[in-house]
Amino acid sequence: MITWFLALPVLVAGFVAVRLVPRRSGRTALWWMVGADAVLLVAATVVLTLAAGGGSAQAATSAAQNTGSGSAALIGAAIAVAASTIGAGIAVAYTGAAALAALSERPELFGRAMVIVGLAEGIAIYGLVVAVILIGKA
Questions:
Q1: Which of 22, 44, 76, 78 is the most buried (most CB within 10 A)?
Q2: Chain-wide mean pLDDT for the chain?
């Protein structure tokens, strides 16, 4: 688990670099993109290798006895919250823009527009409920 926390800043820096590189023009941008992709591939391979085979068998056995399936439940809870929050953000972006467009033409639609935006926010609440259930089983 600590491997992921150590690798996270490296991955974020790689994603930022890949995002900023296309602002350059010509072949230079292509080579920068290929280089950044190669660095991300190597970093992901190192993280996967450390996560899959790091440590001795005895340490892995004692860690498995101590944590059990609790870490899998916590990772599942994190994925549930992250995915539902991203989904809710995308949904609110579209419904909020449509609601503002409708309100600019007909202000009396405020109640209906807020209900629809609230339904989009409900997706994040469902993710939190799933996370609480998973954490309770950990």
A1: 76
A2: 79
